[in-house]
Amino acid sequence: MKKLFLILTILLLFLLGGCQTKQDTVTYNGMFFDTVISVTVYDTPKKTLEQDIMEFCRKYDNLLSRTNPESEISKINSAQGNPTKVSPETIEILEKSIEYSQLTGGAFDITIGPLVDLWDFKKSHPTLPDQKDIDEALSHVDYTKIKIDKDTVTLEDPLAKIDLGGIAKGYIGDQLKTFLKEQGIQTALINLGGNIVVFGEKSDHSPFHIGIQKPFDETGTPITSMEIRDASLVTSGVYERYFEFNQTLYHHLLDPKTGMPSQSPLYSATILCESSAQADALSTACFVLGVDQSKELITQLKDVTAIFITDDNQIKKLETID
Ligand code: ADP
Ligand code: MG
Predict the structure, then answer these.
(1) Neighbours of ion ligand 2 (CB under 5 A)
(2) Which of 244, 269, 308, 322 could join 286 in a cystine, given CB atoms 3.0 to 4.6 angstroms apart?
């Protein structure tokens, strides 16, 4: 059913021909980062903007995607402990990722790759991994093994694997915002597979209303919505990638301490803050940590709101204001 929904969405995007104009907005659609993306601008853009956005996204896909064997991340992962020279963008996202690992006490860890491979939520007939395989994969999950020296990255554990699934869309969202501003765009809504970034003022000065998905609802009905300006809203939800086995739901938000899908009694964790990289990393981490430990984390930060949907569909909100 989920697949059908995605196929219908993709079909619709093709029928729309990639670009759509409504009142004084223009929306560009594409498929990148394993998901559907759209960028709506509220200005009169130059003719080449669509092509420029697509090229921009392709560039980041080619740097950071683990499914592309030619990407810089794949090169680091297959270097068998040897140093790999990479671009400044790759260095920047790795440095930010390490910062979020430190901040979250390892609940967010981009060396989660061996565990993601083992659980493989994309395969058609998923099975439960053996405990010994989980233990083996877990022994290679450790962000302190990523060593960065200027433009060179080394994975000290040759079997470690970087997976940026928990932060890439957020980081790219921030980069895309900067890029659009450089192109003269004053107001836009960026949607990278549900990672939202908005900036600027609409002509009627109203805020952007962004919905938080009702868990497992395929019609796209929001459970609640937020009014946002110049900020990013990112959700990590169990319903995005999961399988069921013996009436238990196994999802893609993995606890780096146990090697299992996090046991937090949650359906989703959403973060609202200025930086989308931060919102993305923290949404994954807060899901793994659960409400109480997230409270300790969020109170250390400025201007961050966390919204949790518990597994009995209650909404819980934590907020820190500068
Ligand atoms: P998405 O919105 O694409 O589902 P999320 O931000 O919710 O992504 O993060 C989930 C993805 O992040 C997983 O698919 C996996 O690639 C990676 N991941 C899973 N657990 C962790 C973790 N504890 N720390 C960092 N990344 C993780
Ligand atoms: Mg995330």
Answers:
(1) 166, 236, 280, 283-284
(2) 269
